[in-house]
Q: What sequence folds into this?
């Protein structure tokens, strides 16, 4: 039967022998594009509102979008489906996510109703997907029913937020998100994980794709703001050290962490791995905005001290990234990685502390000097990672040689 007329199937029931391994589908990649556009708008909101209140509102909106993406990703991880009904639900969901993006600029003002209903529509499509899974794969009905009911409660709370006084609707949003975040950790849901496991390779790839999408937006932010700039010495110097930081961010995740298997044998470590990707994604969006602001300072005010709020924003982005990466490393399965992850995690925590000290104490540095200091710390992180990998591989080869000699 054509895939267009094949209902949801649990991924273990699908024969992937014709392919070397399960791969991310074209529909999933197409689905990600709407999140690219929405995240750009959320980043633009932060760029226009670099204040404590603006940052808090930014965090709420990014949490909403990240959780919407995560919910759909885990559904498509467990249930292999690409029929016309599923595509209709996904396309409708994409329209709702785009509506979230259109509402970002005034989500805490006149567009809060539109923002709320857009998220409700996004989650409603996911609930309908789980209801389809209940019908067509009754063996896992306990799992799909728990998600459908739990997310429906979240939807009800979001709709209830519309009854709150103006300026307080965000409280309802956070309560609704909190309820949904709890659903996967409920005892009755966790009991089903042993039977209805996730596809670890697929979920690692999906989170890696989302991370690189967000990381790529740092380029978008800087290039969009710097369009038409004449490149001089200051711009060239900043671009050099700034790119070193960006390359380090890529290296630390995609060379050491992406593609490594999650320890789903431990529910606690799996939850840490999943949820730590939220602050990781947040940090990369913040980094894009901070890099954009720092570049503008280097171009327009060469030699002058970097604006304190941009210095703190840049520092926050790097510290948040390293702490999130440490937690993600902790969630990996040591048996499937090239080196002990606890050492990597501790190194990231040390790096985060050093970056925080620089951001707090070195208040008189220019944009170029400040980012250069951060680049030194990040390159140190990369160098330690390379050293650890080389040491572990060398120790492994020595152990094998010793064992062979003894035999």
A:
């Amino acid at each position: 039967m054509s895939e267009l007329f094949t209902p949801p199937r649990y991924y273990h029931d699908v024969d992937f022998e014709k392919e070397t391994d399960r791969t991310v589908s074209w529909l999933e990649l197409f689905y990600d594009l709407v999140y690219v556009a929405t995240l750009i708008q959320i980043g633009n909101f932060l760029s226009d509102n670099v204040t404590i209140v603006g940052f808090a509102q930014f965090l709420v909106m990014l949490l909403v979008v990240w959780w919407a993406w995560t919910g759909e990703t885990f559904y498509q991880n467990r249930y292999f489906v690409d029929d016309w009904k599923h595509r209709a639900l996904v396309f409708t969901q994409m329209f709702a996510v785009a509506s979230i993006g259109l509402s970002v600029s005034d989500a805490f003002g006149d567009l809060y109703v539109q923002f709320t209903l857009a998220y409700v529509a996004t989650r409603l499509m996911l609930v309908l997907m789980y209801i389809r899974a209940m019908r067509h794969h009754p063996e896992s009905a306990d799992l799909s029913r728990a998600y459908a009911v739990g997310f429906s409660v979240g939807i009800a709370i979001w709709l209830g937020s519309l009854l709150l006084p103006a300026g307080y609707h965000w409280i309802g949003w956070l309560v609704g998100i909190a309820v949904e975040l709890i659903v996967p950790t409920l005892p009755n849901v966790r009991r089903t994980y042993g039977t209805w496991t996730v596809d670890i390779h697929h979920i690692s790839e999906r989170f890696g794709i989302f991370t690189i999408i967000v990381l790529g937006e740092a380029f978008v932010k800087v290039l969009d703001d710097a369009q038409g700039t004449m490149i001089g010495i200051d711009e060239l110097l900043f671009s050099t050290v700034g790119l070193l930081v960006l390359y380090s961010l890529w290296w630390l995740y995609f060379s050491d962490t992406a593609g490594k298997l999650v320890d789903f044998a431990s529910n606690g470590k799996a939850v840490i791995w999943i949820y730590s990707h939220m602050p990781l994604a947040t940090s990369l969006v913040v980094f894009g905005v901070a890099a954009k602001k720092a570049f503008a300072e280097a171009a327009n005010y060469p030699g002058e001290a970097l604006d304190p709020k941009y210095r703190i924003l840049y520092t926050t982005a790097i510290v948040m990234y390293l702490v999130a990466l440490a937690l993600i490393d902790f969630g990996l399965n040591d048996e499937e990685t090239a080196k002990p992850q606890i050492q990597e995690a501790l190194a990231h925590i040390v790096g985060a502390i050093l970056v925080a000290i620089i951001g707090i104490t070195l208040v008189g540095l220019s944009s170029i000097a400040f980012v250069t200091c951060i680049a030194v710390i990040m390159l140190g992180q990369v160098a330690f990672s390379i050293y650890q990998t080389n040491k572990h591989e060398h120790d492994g080869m020595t152990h094998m040689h010793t064992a062979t000699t003894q035999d």
Residues 367-406 form the longest helix (40 residues). The mean pLDDT is 86. The beta strands are 9-10, 79-80.
